[in-house]
Design goal:
It contains 14 helices and 8 strands. It has 387 residues and is an alpha/beta fold. The radius of gyration is 22 Å and the shape is globular. Keywords: Acyltransferase, Membrane, Transferase, Transmembrane, Transmembrane helix.
Length: 387
């Protein structure tokens, strides 16, 4: 155990993980690009079938870091009968709170255990699609990229949802309706805006931006059967905080995730009615967050009916996949670096050192992007866009 703990905290091992992740990502992006331009124009069905496995191979390296490297696990709160009947068997539209650095990764862990990981989609800022590896993978996976220019975005949403509803296998599309990750400063701005507009004032969530939601629902009716309301929380008493850095250091966290399946037909017709419905959902989510904060339980003080709690077993695929990529990438990469360092040439030595420095900086830049302090703003400018 002492050796394993030392390896999990080793910067050299972290660097090897980074080299494996980013290099495999570029290789996968290469094959995605060939298929996107060479196969997709002739057969979207076959392209999407193959791309599922390419996306899974890339995403599951991060799932490996969560559930195998750090030992992180998730307690699920789901109606068991509905879980057995619907979950992982249909297209779904996901509403999730955005309160932690790793909430998205916990979602991926659950999707992997439901055999959905390769078809996870999300709304994202348009600039992300230009970021190598993960951004390119999302682009080839047909995620929805928005500019926050409503006249353009509403057309993109309609066209892209039409494409996603045609997927041959179950697909889940995630919306963070709050628009950005929760912080105390953003909450203050959000509450001020809500008070000015006569909207519900939330304590544990930012006021949801409703335009993307209300624009999406009409294109989903009769095509996506259900909306999945997701509430994720970590106990504040846990000594290990849910951050990417802690997961990289092999520190285990435990997430608690409530998921409620809501038939899409329960969302009312019309933009104003759908927006009001979304605000009510977030009032309920706020009560659940407050109950969890006060009692460590979603249901004690929230008024939400208690449902089954259980855990899903880890699958071995993310472990096998990551070990495969480690061999494919690290064996030739380390051999090449050793040759550079032993060449006796200052130029070659500098090239080797530059390669290592590049991956090291890339790893910490990527981790930094997930930090709460680096998330986008929610202030006066953004608040004007919330309706």
């Amino acid at each position: 155990m002492g050796l394993l703990s030392s390896l999990q905290r080793s910067s050299i091992v972290h660097l090897m993980l980074a080299i494996t992740f980013f290099t495999s990502g570029l290789i996968i992006n290469f094959f995605q690009c060939i298929l996107y331009f060479g196969l997709r124009p002739f057969s979207k069905y076959l392209y999407r079938k193959i791309n599922y496995y390419l996306c899974y191979s890339f995403y599951s390296e991060l799932v490996y870091m969560a559930e195998w490297w750090s030992g992180t696990d998730i307690v699920l709160y789901i109606d068991k009968k509905e879980f057995d009947k619907y979950y992982g068997k249909e297209h779904g539209y996901l509403l999730m709170n955005h309160s932690y650095e790793v909430d998205w990764l916990m979602g991926w862990v659950v999707c992997d255990r439901m055999n959905l990981l390769g078809n996870c989609k999300a709304y994202a800022k348009k600039s992300i699609q230009y970021i190598p590896t993960l951004g390119w993978a999302w682009k080839f996976a047909e995620s929805i990229f928005l500019e926050r220019n409503w006249n353009r975005d509403k057309n993109v949403i309609g066209c892209q949802i039409k494409e996603l509803t045609e997927y041959p296998d179950p697909m889940w599309l995630l919306l963070y309706a709050e628009g950005t990750r929760f912080t105390a400063k953003k909450l203050e701005a959000s509450q001020k805006f809500a008070k000015e507009k006569g909207l519900p004032i939330l304590k544990y969530h930012l006021t949801p931006r409703t335009k993307g939601f209300t624009a999406s629902i009409p294109h989903m009716r009769e095509k996506i059967p259900a909306l999945y309301n997701i509430q994720i929380a970590f106990k504040e008493s846990d000594p290990i905080k849910p951050t990417m850095t802690n997961l990289l250091l092999g520190k285990k966290v435990e997430a608690h995730m409530y998921i409620q399946r809501i038939p899409i037909t329960e969302v009312p017709e019309g933009e104003e009615a759908a927006a009001e419905w979304l605000h009510k959902i977030y009032q309920e989510k706020d009560r659940m967050a407050e109950s969890f904060h006060e009692t460590g339980d979603f249901f004690t003080n929230s008024g939400v009916p208690k449902v089954d709690s259980f855990k899903l077993k880890r699958r071995y695929y993310s472990l096998i996949n990551t070990l495969f990529w480690a061999m494919v990438v690290l064996v030739p990469m380390l051999y090449y670096l050793v040759q550079l360092f032993l060449s006796g040439s200052t130029v070659y030595f500098s090239i080797g050192a530059s390669i290592i420095l590049f991956f090291y900086l890339l790893m910490y830049k990527t981790i930094g992007m997930s930090e709460i302090s680096k998330s986008s703003s929610y202030g006066a400018v953004d608040a004007k866009k919330v309706k």
